[in-house]
């Protein structure tokens, strides 16, 4: 299991809206499904079975293109966009609760592929903790502890199988430091680069660091596969993005937004968590289990047991309301964040599982990882995406999607005769 020193690292709590987010986080290696097998999706890219090129010490192995991934297609003129839903997991790791392996099975059952933001220190054993030096902290410090040998082996098993099933392995970085005293929100661009490189290193060298050289490697080149992240407590996004855009990253999910279509910031897709309903309350909260919890039981994760069922239902129903208003409205992707934690009796894990079942089985819904979402966004006409961004939360095109997307944004008014256009183009007179 993950070392017992792991703990919740909470964030700031506002009266009406929780903005802080915690970063958290099988004995026989699971046999991955063959490319093109029962878990393959239509249009999926299949990994050649003959490719098996170890990288470095063999902790990672290039095995070819990821299987079970749907290639993006550009919308046809006037075509209604699909409803994307992204379920993501901060600090993904397999401990004694076995939640990583459980939700892999849930995903396969309900056709949901997800993003797992792996914490690098979960692949680093406690006795090697001094290999990690967090920015502004002494060597060997981590607010979520480190791995132990069984936890590292189990996490590697789940990461390996998850990737082969078409899920994404992102990063939640390492020590999960929050707040003003050396937290990630205080880090410079260069400090973020150090943190990113260390997170990669712990995944690329886990077999050597843990003395598990006989274990099977992870089936991907992490330098190429790692394209996205969520920062601890949603802090430090600006400098992280400045660092990440030159390091192979394509998106970030550390922001906060209402339920509208995402946009690019500094060359990266900004795909934030969203403000979603809190049923029975007069405010929205963030689309994450931790934020529902803090609005329900405050600073404790072990609140009144008599309220556990109600609290889980409240989260499930809030997420369903959020889903319904985009599914029937502007079709903006729904972004949901979670942790492999049994807070308040595991009620949020139940809520997430019921949400996956209720959403991912609907017509025209695609439950996909962030990577596949941004692949699709990149394949679209940027002007069409910007036009869809004009639709507000829950707002469907008044005259239908076909007319809305075919018409496109209105042309800018013509400049009066003799007046130079604002962009400086046109005749000089």
From TrEMBL:
Organism: Streptomyces virginiae
Record region (Disordered): 27-77, 402-429
PROSITE patterns noted in UniProt: PROKAR_LIPOPROTEIN
Keywords of the record: Signal
InterPro entries xrefs: CE4 (IPR052740), Glyco_hydro/deAcase_b/a-brl (IPR011330)
Signal peptide span: 1-26
This protein's name: Lipoprotein
């Amino acid at each position: 299991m993950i070392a017992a020193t792991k703990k919740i690292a909470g964030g700031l709590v506002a009266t009406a809206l929780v903005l802080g987010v915690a970063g958290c986080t099988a004995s026989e290696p699971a046999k991955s499904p063959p490319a093109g097998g029962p878990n393959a999706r239509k249009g999926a890219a299949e990994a050649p079975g003959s490719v098996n090129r170890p990288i470095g010490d063999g902790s990672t192995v290039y095995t070819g293109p990821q299987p079970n991934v749907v290639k993006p297609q550009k919308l046809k003129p006037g075509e209604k966009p699909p409803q994307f839903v992204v379920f993501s997991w901060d600090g993904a790791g397999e401990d004694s609760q076995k939640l990583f392996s459980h939700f892999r099975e849930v995903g396969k059952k309900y056709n949901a592929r997800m993003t797992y933001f792996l914490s690098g220190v979960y692949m680093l054993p406690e006795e090697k903790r001094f290999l990690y030096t967090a920015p502004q902290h002494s060597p060997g410090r981590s607010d979520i502890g480190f791995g132990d040998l069984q936890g590292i082996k189990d996490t590697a098993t789940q990461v390996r199988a998850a990737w082969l099933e078409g899920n994404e392995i992102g990063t939640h970085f390492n020590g999960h430091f929050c707040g003003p005293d050396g937290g990630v929100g205080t880090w410079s661009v260069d400090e973020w680069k150090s943190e990113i490189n260390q997170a990669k290193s712990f995944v690329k060298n886990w077999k050597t660091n843990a003395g598990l050289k006989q274990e099977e490697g992870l089936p991907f080149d992490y330098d190429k596969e790692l394209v996205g992240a969520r920062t601890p407590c949603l802090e430090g996004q600006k400098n992280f993005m400045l660092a990440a855009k030159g390091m192979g990253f394509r998106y970030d999910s550390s922001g906060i937004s209402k339920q509208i279509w995402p946009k690019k910031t500094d060359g990266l897709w900004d795909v934030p968590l969203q403000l979603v309903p809190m049923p029975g309350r007069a405010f929205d909260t963030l689309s994450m289990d931790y934020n529902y919890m803090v609005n329900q039981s405050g600073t404790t994760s072990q609140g009144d047991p008599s309220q556990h069922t109600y609290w889980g239902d409240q989260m499930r129903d809030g997420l369903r309301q959020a889903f319904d208003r985009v599914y029937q409205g502007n079709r903006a992707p729904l972004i949901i964040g979670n942790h492999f934690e049994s807070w308040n009796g595991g009620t949020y894990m139940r809520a997430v599982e019921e949400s996956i079942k209720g959403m991912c089985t609907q017509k025209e819904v695609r439950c996909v990882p962030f990577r596949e979402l941004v692949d699709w966004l990149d394949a679209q006409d940027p002007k069409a995406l910007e036009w869809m961004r004009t639709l507000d939360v829950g707002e469907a095109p008044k005259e239908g999607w076909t007319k809305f997307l075919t018409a496109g944004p209105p042309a800018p008014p013509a400049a009066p005769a003799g007046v130079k256009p604002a962009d400086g183009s046109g005749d000089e007179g």
